[in-house]
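User: Predict structure, ligand S-adenosyl-L-homocysteine.
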Amino acid sequence: MNKKTYFIRTFGCQMNESDSDMFGAYLEQLGYMPTDNVDEADIVIVNTCSVRQHAEERAFTEIGDLKHYKAKNPAGKVVVVGCMAERMGKELKVKFPHIDLLVGAKSAEQFPEIMKKSGIIADTRDARATTEKIAAPDKPVRNDTKTTDESATTKITTFVTISRGCNNYCSYCVVPYVRGPEEYRPVEEIVEEITKLTANGLKEATLLGQNVNSYRSVMSVIDPASGSYTLKEADFSDLLAEIHKIVGLKRIRYMTNHPKDVSDKFIKTIASLNKVCTHIHLPLQSGSDRVLELMNRKYTFEYYYGLIRKLRYHIADISITTDLMVGFPGETDKDFKATLDAVSKIKFDFAYVFKYSPRENTEAFKLGDTVNKETKEKRHKELLDLCNAVAREKNSKYLGKLAEVLVESRQSDTGEYMGKTKDNRAVVFQSARELLGQSINIKIKEAKVHSLIGENIA
Ligand code: SAH
Ligand code: SF4
Ligand code: F3S
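Assistant: Predicted complex:
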């Protein structure tokens, strides 16, 4: 009998990618194989994002197209998961009757039980095996992307969820509503997961949370005098220090950070732990204090700029990337100019630039969508052009130099390898030798906006 297969399409952020990995790992425990060909899949999962209207529209198209899949495969199952499933719930099922099951983002961790209950899968194993956290598979999980052939048995780099949800309620953002309040995984559980994966060849872990700096938990510490365990509060810096001790793990990354929670302790910790990569993603959103206040971001530009100075003082070669938004309700030319000035002053290594998209039920929704489409487009282009020019200029400092990269994937079509520098630059190069998982020096020949092109001279 042919093996059963599943297909997953993921929209949205790294949290969704990580959840998709978790869903895939679970199905693989039951003997399902991943497939790139949706038409041959027994189960099709669409993991959705609600952050902007555009993300939702793309998912609508994808889900709508699955009507043809259902027509060809009446026994096939369509499962829609993630933030849209949470936000829209049954409304989605009314719009697309060919959906067999909805699993909202807040229920991501209950995916096995919900799938089982729905009858879509037959999981006859001991109940304990399926109620165990699937976030911590102790066998290698599937590849991050299907276009690369990272070794099938060893995962070189992986996302590790440390917290779920968000308490910040930035006025424009749907995430706190669709993901719920912050919840933190215990230190021991995270360390155990990474330790197991490292024993299987993992080299790098990216710790994931909507706001990693607000991580809070308790951990047990041994009292050397009595030999007994006591409980101590742990913050993100403590978690990093614990993960840093894992033998064999080479690199630690983390995202995303909220400026209001970036403490001196955190900055000193990342400066002192050499496995922690020299990169921080620190969303600014806007350079205008007036807009930042309306966004409920809880900091001013001056405060943010102070953080940048501190980070660069303690970690000279740190790369700083950001998220920026144009067209927030009421954004004037002057406000927009403040964002352009902020970029010129800070010179981000890379920036994502988004057009404001009104989200129902958020605070900002009440302010209307006052910046017209043309102005949003114009501001988006101007800001993106500036950010990309700065990013290219920043990348060009590598020209002619050697960059140490951890090789994490190989494109199956071109055979090119991709590795990342500690400061999160993607380096693409050719090599006749098998290099996956290795740390090597690559000579940089060309600087692009999103990547560096290099040559293996070893
Ligand atoms: N928790 C993370 C990521 C949130 S979503 C963080 O705070 O960094 C990623 C980015 O999407 C945000 O930083 C913001 O720039 C953008 N974004 C969120 N809601 C948006 C909206 N309604 N319209 C446009 N961009 C939005
Ligand atoms: Fe959204 Fe703000 Fe939370 Fe990020 S910190 S997820 S932008 S509410
Ligand atoms: Fe999108 Fe949900 Fe992430 S709304 S950005 S997939 S948390």
